[in-house]
Design brief:
The protein is an alpha+beta fold and about 90 residues long. The protein is about 40% helix and about 30% strand. It has helices at about 15-20, 25-30, 60-75, and strands at about 1-10, 35-45, 50-55, 85-90. Strand 2 and strand 3 (about 50-55) form a beta hairpin. The longest helix has 18 residues, at about 60-75. It is globular, with a radius of gyration of 13 Å.
Length: about 90
């Protein structure tokens, strides 16, 4: 398994997490359609939040990040800072 964490903060981050909550079905369809998709979560943290995507391999998490960036660009009306991305292979998952 491979996991990517995208951490959003600063300008536009609050609007992003408002939209994620309001458009759950749209986001679910977008991300769960990634080949090798396993799991997705989004949560608020301070003035922004984080999203976590687990896939069977790095190709899946790369595609989820590409789709996420495209969705943010198309849907968030304010300028948003690029997310800090942390990724790697899982050591333990249950």
């Amino acid at each position: 398994m491979y996991v990517v964490v995208r951490s959003y903060s600063g300008q536009g981050a609050s609007e992003l997490f408002d939209l994620l909550g309001q458009r759950e079905e749209e986001v679910k369809e977008l991300i769960s359609g990634v080949p090798g998709f396993v799991n997705y979560a989004a949560f608020r943290s301070g003035d922004g939040g984080m999203t976590v995507t687990a896939c069977q391999d790095k190709a899946g998490t790369d595609e989820s990040s590409r789709r996420a960036a495209e969705w943010v660009k198309e849907n968030v009306t304010t300028t948003i800072n690029a997310p800090v991305i942390t990724e790697g292979s899982t050591v333990l998952q249950f």
